[in-house]
Amino acid sequence: MKISIVVTQEEHFKFAQEICDTIESSALLRGTGIAKRTPEYIQKKMSNGDAMIALADGKFAGFCYIESWQHGKFVAHSGLIVHPDYRNLGLAKKIKSKVFDYSLKKYPEAKIFGITTGLAVMKINSDLGYKPVPFSELTTDPSFWNGCKTCTNFEILQSKQNKMCLCTGMLYDPKEKQKTPPRHPFNEAVLSRLKKIKQALFLNKILSFVFLFKI
């Protein structure tokens, strides 16, 4: 099977709805929060050359797009998705690596960051040289955080003044001297445990609030 990964153009508009549907269904299947995007938003990214799509014999196989914040000071990769028919082929990592290299060329001065609850994405990011960071090191642009409104965890993010959520923040600074392998190797067991601790802490706070409210 030959799968090509290319920078998007208007000819790829026809895949926008399928991309949105695949992203949403994948999030529901995993039981995770997600910031929803419309087909029109995806098409805008496509026309600006701020996205990459994977095609297998002309069929949609995977996708990821780029967002820039604070006049190009920060760049984020969003909507990374692989169609169910093409999973378990290492395609997500290939797409992410392509988008990462493309971002370094298009936005050479930008810090590349992301927030995610997915361990698979964390591992990919770590392999590329990202490091886990507090949200305070990410963009302060309210437009980015407003994009989380459609996520099921948005109330948690708001209650923490955009400083913490169930997502983990990760950052790649091109100005830092990178080493091979990355200075912050991925440890799935540790990050999984941290994720569970986060969830437990938030659950305890919510239960405490409900208890006080009933009183």
Automatic annotation (TrEMBL):
Which ranges carry the N-acetyltransferase domain? 11-151
- In terms of superkingdom, the source organism counts as Bacteria
Xref: PROSITE patterns: GNAT (PS51186)
Query: What is the recorded name of this protein?
Result: GNAT family N-acetyltransferase
